[in-house]
Amino acid sequence: MSGYDLSRFAINQITTPKWSMPQAIEGYVSQGIPGIAVWRNFLDDHGVEATARHLRDAGMWVASLCTSAWVNETDPARLRAAIDTNKRILDQAAAIGAPCVVMVVGGLPAGSKDLGAQRARIHDALVELAPYARSVGVKLGLEPLHPMYCGDRSAMNLITECNDTIDALGDEATSLVADVYHCWWDPAFERELRRAGPKRIQTFHYCDWLVPTRNLRDRGMVGDGVIDLPRIRGWLDDIGYDGPFELELFSEIDWWERDPAETVRIAIERCGPLVAPRK
């Protein structure tokens, strides 16, 4: 074992996409990692009941379920279908013990340049989903995505915006999913983490920003980039955050090509000092 206290550490499944759900569960546990952030494609492949049973048997806790269905449809019937899909995803999260669904809500609809309309569409969808989230005991995990994703993946891009939405919809239905990759550059990052406080932050994502970044799925392993991760961990300690830390690593030309067991081993070495509980 690593010698680090990994009790707050989870691997996000997108970090090891070569592994199926059973392989990921067993692979993480075998190296002493007790937490997992589940991705829906792996969940669907293995089945919700089988996954829930496997997680219980392995003694693993779930940090989050990734990700929501996009709500970037201009056709009312298709938008309604997307909202209904998100309700089913919330049900899945409840079944596997995930405290939140990470909301990746879609960028501009096909053929549209109306960013304001899409942001209004996102807000309205969250307003509608919030009561359902409360009813099943799973929060809408609002994750601001880096602005480079605004055109396609998500038009919810600022941590300030996410905190404002949580203020409006309430802590019982919504929470903050903060990711260093998406927020490290933002002058408001520290201020908004402090504004959120320890209870609003549902889970916290680690990785690193490479220079140069070669494509949109070229994140760095912790320690390989330019983000001052110890300083950010210090902010979280200052506000008393005691929730999960996830490694979420999109890396199609590097880490995704490696043996997942090697990736997990190196992740423990790099993340260990940044995930240990406060002393």
From TrEMBL:
<keyword id="KW-0413">Isomerase</keyword>
<dbReference type="GO" id="GO:0016853">
    <property type="term" value="F:isomerase activity"/>
</dbReference>
<dbReference type="InterPro" id="IPR050312">
    <property type="entry name" value="IolE/XylAMocC-like"/>
</dbReference>
<feature type="domain" description="Xylose isomerase-like TIM barrel">
    <location>
        <begin position="42"/>
        <end position="259"/>
    </location>
</feature>
<dbReference type="Pfam" id="PF01261">
    <property type="entry name" value="AP_endonuc_2"/>
</dbReference>
<dbReference type="InterPro" id="IPR013022">
    <property type="entry name" value="Xyl_isomerase-like_TIM-brl"/>
</dbReference>
<dbReference type="InterPro" id="IPR036237">
    <property type="entry name" value="Xyl_isomerase-like_sf"/>
</dbReference>
<protein>
    <submittedName>
        <fullName>Xylose isomerase</fullName>
    </submittedName>
</protein>
